[in-house]
Automatic annotation (TrEMBL):
InterPro entries: Catalase, Catalase_AS, Catalase_clade1/3, Catalase_core, Catalase_haem_BS, Catalase_immune_responsive, Catalase_sf. It catalyses: 2 H2O2 = O2 + 2 H2O. SUPFAM superfamilies: Heme-dependent catalase-like. It comes from Peribacillus simplex. Heme binds at residue 352. Residues 1-10, 514-525 have a biased composition (Basic and acidic residues). This is Catalase. One of its GO terms (cellular component) is cytoplasm. Its cofactor is heme.
Length: 525
């Protein structure tokens, strides 16, 4: 490896160079024929500078494009509630009380683009990378504890419906509710997203959830189902649509700014990590399937067990290098953590890592932000932007396994391997016990009056331009969930009957003609 501290006699630590290490003596002017030009082709410093500038964006994430991040650490309690955590999992990250594991967290919005306002109605991503002694563990989730759908087959359609119209390029509530009204399992998430819970006040004061159901495996190879919940010690705050509009009028980076400035002033945000545990079976006594991502596990039946605390205490030194290139995947699990049969989790596990290879490159795990903070030794080789071979002490001629003459060897299995019984016909069917609206009704009844008011107002505004058939479907779902919910939505839509048929993004109120009326005339120059 080269010594990057070396410099020529006339260089200092502040001397500008190009990527080849050449000192740049003129960073103001092209090389031209006379000071008016034309320029010459051999402008090497300029060509290197502008060609890199042309490529300084990598493909934007299809979802979770707008994000902010920070470094910190996780400290376990060594217990799950009052019991030793080893009863449930052998994952080393949880075993030793007080042990610090470095983490990097990326918060994000889901649907909107990389420079979109942070006041827009949207779920928020909450992804945590634990740099454990056994390698990386990614806990990839959202601020809300459920999701719109329960089957990964529907994910591209869901996102297409929430993304801008492919013709007008405007997000359109009519398209959103066309999909949601025909997919009743979305109604619980719709109830959350169109309430103030759809616009968290900032990243520090929002909950996080793994959303999917995972498994924990102990030393004996026995497993339990588990759900993860991050609880902010700063408290929880959400915004009404009107409050969000007022913030957006003056600051569309408010959540990123809030996180950065809080850490800079030493006000480090903290979250307690709690888990819910359930035996590993299908629980026929419940009126929902525990693997259904549209459902919450009732807290009174499956209490939260405190397992540790996370602190964020360091801002990124470079946004692109750390936040933009950070890559997460639901399949990144360490020993003692495992997958459940959750169909959304199964689909996400391929999709997340696949999109990182497309977006950042085949060697994205060699980037410092993504690399584990421990040794790695693989037989993977090649690919765009490889900058280290990443092998162990084997012969450099042996990049395969098994080998008798100096290759890598398999690790020993310490804990007993988890071997669940899997049996059944291969089918394409939805799960039983769908119960699409019951929990939505329970959620509505738990809302405070101001949350109910904002929910109904937002739904009416977004549904008003929609086809009557779509409105009727949504009203029927609301009536099935709760009598008051259905009645208020029906009355609100009836009162808004003199709506325009124009498309409107979520939260949009003004007609584009207002800009014409309010604009100030100017003479050409």
């Amino acid at each position: 490896m080269s010594d990057k501290s070396k410099k020529t006699n006339d260089e200092t630590n502040e001397t500008l160079t190009n990527r080849q290490g050449h000192p740049v003596t003129n960073n103001q002017s092209l090389r031209t024929v006379g000071n008016r030009g034309p320029s010459t082709l051999e402008n090497y410093d300029f060509l290197e500078k502008i060609s890199h500038f042309d490529r300084e964006r990598i493909p934007e994430r299809v979802v979770h494009a707008r994000g902010a991040g920070a470094h910190g650490y996780f400290v376990p309690t060594g217990k799950a509630g009052d019991e030793p955590i080893s009863k449930y999992t052998r994952a080393k990250v949880f075993q030793e009380e007080g042990k610090k594991t470095p983490v990097f967290v990326r918060f994000s919005s889901v649907i909107h683009g990389g420079t979109s306002p942070e006041t827009l109605r949207d779920p928020r991503g909450f992804a945590v990378k634990f740099y454990t002694e056994d390698g990386n563990w990614d806990l990839v989730g959202n601020n809300l504890k459920i999701f719109f759908i329960r089957d990964a087959m529907k994910f591209p359609d869901l996102i297409h419906a929430f993304k801008p119209d492919p013709v007008t390029n405007i997000q359109d509530g009519r398209r959103i509710f066309d999909f949601c009204s025909s997919s009743p399992e979305t109604f619980h998430m719709v109830t959350f997203v169109f309430s103030p819970w759809g616009i968290p006040a900032n990243y520090r004061m929002m909950q996080g959830s793994g959303v999917n159901t995972y498994k924990w495996v102990n030393e004996e190879g026995k497993a339990v189902l588990v759900k993860y919940h991050w609880e902010p010690k700063q408290g929880i705050k959400n915004l009404t649509q009107q409050e969000a509009n007022e913030i957006q009028a003056t600051n569309f980076n408010h959540a990123t700014q809030d996180l950065y400035e809080a850490i800079e002033r030493g006000d480090y945000p903290e979250w307690d990590l709690n888990v819910q545990i359930m035996s590993d079976d299908d629980h026929p006594e419940l009126d929902f399937d525990p693997l259904d991502d549209t459902k919450i596990w009732p807290k009174d039946e499956f209490p939260w067990l405190h397992v540790g605390t996370m602190v964020l205490n360091k801002n990124p030194e470079d946004y692109f290098t750390e936040v933009e290139q950070a890559a997460f995947g639901t399949g990144v699990l360490v020993d003692g953590l495992d997958f459940s049969d959750d169909k959304m989790l199964q689909g996400r596990t391929f999709s997340y890592s696949d999109t990182q290879r497309h977006r950042v490159g085949a060697n994205y795990l060699q980037l410092p932000i993504n690399a584990p903070k421990k040794r790695t030794a693989t037989n993977q080789t090649g690919g765009q932007m490889q900058y280290e071979v990443g092998r162990g002490s084997q012969s450099p001629h042996i990049n395969y396994e098994p080998s008798t003459v100096g290759g890598l060897k398999e690790a020993n299995q310490t804990g007993k391997e988890y071997t669940p019984m899997v049996e059944g016909k291969l089918v394409r069917e939805t799960i039983d016990r769908q119960n699409n609206t019951k929990q939505a009704g329970e959620t509505f009844r738990e809302f405070e009056d101001w949350e109910k008011d904002d929910l109904i107002s937002n739904l009416v505004a977004a549904l008003a331009p929609a086809d009557k058939r779509i409105q009727e479907k949504m009203i029927a779902l609301a009536e099935e969930a709760d009598e008051e919910y259905g009645r208020r939505l029906k009355e609100g839509l009836a009162a808004a009957s003199e709506h325009t048929e124009s498309s409107k993004p979520l939260g949009g109120t003004d007609n584009p003609e207002d800009a014409v009326r309010k604009g100030h005339e100017a003479d050409p120059y």
